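Journal club prep, notes for RB
We'll compare a predicted complex against what the paper describes. Inputs for the iron/sulfur cluster case:
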Amino acid sequence: MPLTVEIDPHSGFCGGVTRAIEKAESLLAARPGMHLYSLGAIVHNEAELERLSAKGLVTIGRDEFDAMGDSSGKTLLIRAHGEPPATYAEAASKSFEIADCTCPVVLRLQERIREAWARLRENGGQLLIFGKIGHAEVLGLLGQTDGGAVIVENGEMLEELIGNGGIDLGRPAEFFSQTTKSSEEYAALCAGLRSRMAAFRGMTPEEFDASGLLRVHDSICAQVSSRHERLRAFAAAHDVILFVSGRSSSNGKVLYDLCRSVNARTCHISSPDGIRPEWFRDGDRVGVCGATSTPKWLLERVADAVKFATVPANS
Ligand code: SF4
């Protein structure tokens, strides 16, 4: 029996990435020959980056940006992840024009973090962010607190920080999450901190909640969290899942793990070239899906390649 293949209708770029790419393309089309520099990859997907680079978008790293001198006549694109205030100051000092493509959801989160930081400085509290150390969005969020927020990557790190005093159970705290993290992991971290803080003060969970000493903010992007449930169902409904994402996509890692948790035959690829015939058995229903940074056209190419895949004779 031949393979059947279906593309997850909810996979593909999120609104923030779509908006940034459209803005870059419209700038390049309107001003041919312009010098448009993206500070960091506009999307964590090598194939899409190649497509945009052919249109004239130049991706530069932080070191390259720091080394640049007077940049009059050049435009710096701030990608959907956002940047800390120091980047805007540095760009202005070099006379860059700025094309700010920070996702509105991230901009709002930066604002909420600035407000919380101001509150916490008054009551001696601490601000925690669940996110990946060094991730561009996290650096932008951290910059709203002058580097004063504590980044927590996972439960192990939370315990470590409590142990070494990086998190003080006796002080008020506010907790935020990077927009692309898993809601379940964030809920588990918040619950862990809540019980540790309540125990430290000898309070019941109810007394502790009433005290307002820990404020948890729902800051995971709705486009990401709604995708999780749908993706779980999609992965469970197919025999094999081909998960397509760039190697450095943080959201890609989260969603790949999620697919794998419900379907052990989940395979990660970044392009159709990565497909291996031995992954398939006769008559398999193959599902193709990806991260918020995976373009639809790439999912379509993968699906087309599956249609022509030859299943090994002994399967
Ligand atoms: S995942 Fe959500 S918050 Fe992040 S860029 Fe996309 S739309 Fe914006």
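Talking point for the session: The first strand starts at residue 4 and ends at 7.
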